[in-house]
Amino acid sequence: MFDETEYMEINMGPQHPSTHGVLRLKLKLNGETVVECRPIIGYLHRGVEKICENKTFFQGQIWTDRLDYCSAVSNNLGWAEAVEKLFGITVPRRALYLRTLLTELNRLASHLIWLATHALDIGAMTVFLYTFRERELIMDMFEAFCGARLTTTAFRIGGLYQDLPPGFEAMVRAFLAKFPACLDEYETLLTENRIWKKRTVGVAKLSAEDAIALGVTGPVLRAAGVAYDIRKAFPYAAYRELDFEVPTRTEADTYARYLVRMEEMRQSCRLVAQCLDGLPEGPIMAKLPKVLRSEVNEIYHPTEAPKGELGYYLVGEKGSLNPYRFHVRAPGFANLQALPKMVEGGLVADIIAAIGTLDVVLGEIDR
Predict the structure, then answer these.
(1) How far is the C-alpha of 70 from the C-alpha of 3, rounded, in Å?
(2) Quick check: is 1 in a domain?
(3) 119, 200, 231, 269: which could join 127 in a potential S-S bond, CB 3.0 to 4.6 Å?
(4) How many independent structural domains does the chain possess?
């Protein structure tokens, strides 16, 4: 039995089945209680930002897939729109709708892999099998559209590289008809499950004040009662023309973040249906020169990725074919710094739930 002055320091990771990537946590423990938690990154070093500074604006699109590889389509959208803002490119309306449709399907795929791994971490293996069943259907849609399932390079600067393939709309509508019942199935397994609630209710709490102070965004912030969503605050793509709600909770714990993401999936289905029903006719690509030469200017473009605010900062250099500076405001990086606040004072077992509820992907954190 430890007294108040007797601690044990241990390393969790960097290669650990519950850290969702190469993450090391340096822990100071008093028995099973976490006294101090220090997240340490630096074991991956993707170097995406410096690579993109040495690639043309067109080539940079491919590298954004490799940030949060579970949200490649959302990463693609952020890059395309950031470059379009830098050059003042107007994207055809049909392309905006198709981009929104694919991005919301990607939000569903990302949330499904979050639910699968989060539940598996806590010991619920059945959910993992169920959610991957539906995620595979979304991967099939991505493959039909662009020939890739994970790192999609779904968009192009100025629009899309092709229109919807034959049968794509039927695939999406069949999925939308089935998926709400699947969500109900997941909730039957988890929402009132007493073991799930014991592992999540009141665990890893993060107040709205702390979340704002630490730069936390996305479902983690909204579960603390802050209804901040880039799609509403600074609409982009086709979001200003679509109707949807921003789910929030006030409990600010792991269970609340689970409920917020579940409702977000329902809202994503609603958005996808609206994109199909209101899909405009017309071109899918703006007229562009074969090379883009930048002027001396800079922009920051935020989008609402599945994990929170994904922002691209680009600096142009007169006559250059590639950005002078490129920086990613990755949501996972900002959210991870809230981990100590969430777990200190709790139990070691709650660290697993806290990492899962943040939905970290180290590809974008240690970029």
Answers:
(1) 44
(2) no
(3) 119
(4) 1
Q: Is the dihedral of CA 360, 363, 366, 367 positive or negative?
A: negative
Residue ranges of the chain with per-residue pLDDT less than 70:
1-5
- Confidence at residue 17, expressed as pLDDT on a 0 to 100 scale: 86
pLDDT at 3: 56
246: in domain? yes
d(CA 107, CA 113): 10
DSSP for 108-174, please give it: HHHHHHHHHHHHHHHT-HHHHHHHHHHHHHHHHHHHHHHS-SSS----BTTB-SS-PPTTHHHHHHH
User: pLDDT tens for residues 103-128?
Assistant: 999 999 999 999 999 999 999 999 99
pLDDT at 4: 58
Q: Assess if residue 82 is contained within a domain.
A: yes
Domain coverage including residue 330: 8-365
**Any idea what the CATH number is for the domain that residue 207 is in?**
1.10.645.10
What's this model's pTM, rounded to 2 decimal places?
0.95
Determine, yes or no, domain membership for 112. Answer: yes
Q: How far is CA 193 from CA 30, 200, 258, 282, in A?
A: 30, 11, 13, 49
What is the token pair recorded at 242? 């679509």
Q: Which of 232, 303, 237, 298 is nearest to 83 (CA)?
A: 298
